[in-house]
Design brief:
The protein is an alpha+beta fold. Helices cover 44% and strands 18% of the residues.
Amino acid sequence: MTTTIYTRPACVHCDATKKALTARGIEFETVDLSQDAAALERLRAQGFMSVPVVVTEDDAWSGFRPDKIMELTSKTEARA
């Protein structure tokens, strides 16, 4: 399962999301939106206005969402 986290430097919610995913053994890629203007514009076009934005194969959300992280954990464990 591919998971990508779009972040900005010094983002508390971004760090919390990465820490929670790591603690649950979920691998992810990180894209720094301060370094990738094209990714920032794509996310804005999709209606995202805050970070982090987490994109999986079948879901996407913004902000620190423990409920979504637990849901992702369940899906990942079911596929293992």
